[in-house]
Amino acid sequence: MTGTIWPPDFENCTDPKYLVLVQSLRCAVRSGHLAVGEKLPPVRDLAWQLGITPGTVARAYKLAVEEGLLETTVGRGTFVADGRLEPMLGPEPLVTLSQSEDVDLRAVRVPDVGQDKAIHGAMARVLAAEPSYLLCPDSVTDLVARQAVVNWIGHDIAARLSIDDVVLTLGAQNASMIAMQCCLHGSSPVVLTEEVTFPGVRHACRLLRADVIGVGIDQDGLRPDRLEEALRRHGAQVLVTSAQAHSPTTVHTPLARRQEIAELARRYNLQIIEDDCYGLNASETPSYRMLCPDRAWYLGSLTKAVSSALRFGFLVPPEGRAQMARHVMQSNCYGVPQPMLDICAELILSGEAAAIRQKVIAAIEKRVRVAVNILGSWDIRWRRDVPFIWLKLPQGWRGSTFVRACDARGIRIKSADEYALPDGQAPNAVRIALAPELPVADLQAALEIVSELLAKPPLWNEN
Q: Where is the HTH gntR-type domain (predicted)?
């Protein structure tokens, strides 16, 4: 590939330049202008040819590789891939499934602490009562499950609500979608969230045709000055945040910072959707639902604390908006299936779900200790009840390069790039999940390899 073939027209485009570049690559490959196996210029060379920044080219190359349009080989460069173009909803699925025998430290999984036995027992007790499962669930048949949720969630939330304030959902992702559907309006709605965030946020925004904008964070979470700047510039309707335990950084937002953000929400008429899925332990810090009950949506699920197989979540809308959220949920899927409601209510009201949660926390704490003992000399963020580590890479390593180096040693981890928003910047970091399915000795061995690699950054630089 030489000269100025397939030049994208940046002057007459309104889309981000990296997307225009990717589309131009697609067209060039489909038309045969770029042949399979043909080498593309290095990032800086192509950026100079096109008059754009190297970061824009790098982002376009990354997206094209994720689509299967291009392929990269360390030390050789970037080439047109030998494969068919397949449309994708996004570059990464929300559930990561390992297809190899490598040590997979990408996906967060719930430790096995005997959940199957407890779930089987709950099923047996529910079925012993010979319930009728002929009709769709409604506000009467889900009453016991909503009471169970009030018992399950933290005291600061439960102290201010009744069972009528609870909307049951098919997990936390569904709860987030329902809340956004209740809040977003207009032809070009805008959602704000942390500058690195759980990929489910951008998936939801894409499905709802909303623009998602990242807000800068620090050691205490969202920065109020950056949030106010984004509100002034974009006129956002919704903020999606995880203040209790943020993925991927593990950051906990303290009370003083939450109060500042709540005040900004009131001043700019902003709705706050708080995802508390990783808040396994009861928190002494009030939720946004307590700080600004007129505009805060609180959501959670049993996924991280009990079982990922139980697609049981809940949403607590602002005061007076539960009925609207319930109607939106019914319009989406008619509600959570009654057998699931009964099983989860039995688990919670019997006390078994709480007992499982404590065992899960203990299992997580054990693995966090292992990780901190091995990686503690590096720049890591961790919490004893959060099942992953956030590792800021030392000088000499880049996220993508370090991920490839670990992959070459049979260890799969996630770069910060996978948590960045479409037009955002990713920090030079990786997230390492603590793989409860692995024997502790295997996890320890894998983390020792990670530490060994951190100490030996490459001596060469990629173009």
A: 15-83
Tokens of 219: 């050691």
Same domain, 334 and 383: no
Q: Strand, helix or coil at 12?
A: coil
Whether 143 and 276 map to the same domain: the answer is yes
DSSP letters spanning 38-99 = PEEPPHHHHHHHHTS-HHHHHHHHHHHHHHTSEEEETTTEEEE-SS-----SSSS-SS----
Burial class (CB in 10 A: 0-12, 13-18, 19+), 196: buried
CATH assignment of the domain containing 377: 3.90.1150.10
Pairwise CA distance, residues 54 & 76, whole Å: 18
Burial class (CB in 10 A: 0-12, 13-18, 19+), 334: exposed
The predicted model scores a pTM of 0.78
Tell the burial category of 12 from Cβ atoms under 10 Å away from its Cβ (0-12, 13-18, 19+).
exposed
In a domain, 91, yes or no: no
**All residues at 6 or more sequence positions from 7 whose CB lies less than 8 Å from its CB, including other chains:** 24, 50
How many domains is the chain partitioned into structurally? 3
Q: Tens of pLDDT along 20-36?
A: 888 888 888 877 888 88
Residue 114: CB atoms within 10 Å: 12
Confidence of residue 391 (pLDDT cuts 50, 70, 90): very high
Q: d(Cα 95, Cα 303) in Å, to the nearest integer?
A: 12
Query: What is the per-residue pLDDT for 94?
Result: 52
The rounded distance, in Å, linking the Cα atoms of 212 and 188 is: 10
Q: 441: exposed, middle or buried (C-beta count within 10 Å: 0-12, 13-18, 19+)?
A: exposed
Do 94 and 402 form a contact (C-beta atoms < 8 A)?
no
In the block, tokens 């080989």 appear at 73
Closest CA to 374 of 112, 105, 110: 105
Could you tell me which residues are beta bridge partners of residue 159? none
Residue type, 170: L
Tokens at residue 368, please?
Answer: 């966090």
Cα torsion 52, 53, 59, 65: sign: positive
Domain extent, residue 441, equals: 103-112+354-454
Helix or strand run (H / E) with residue 414: strand 414-415
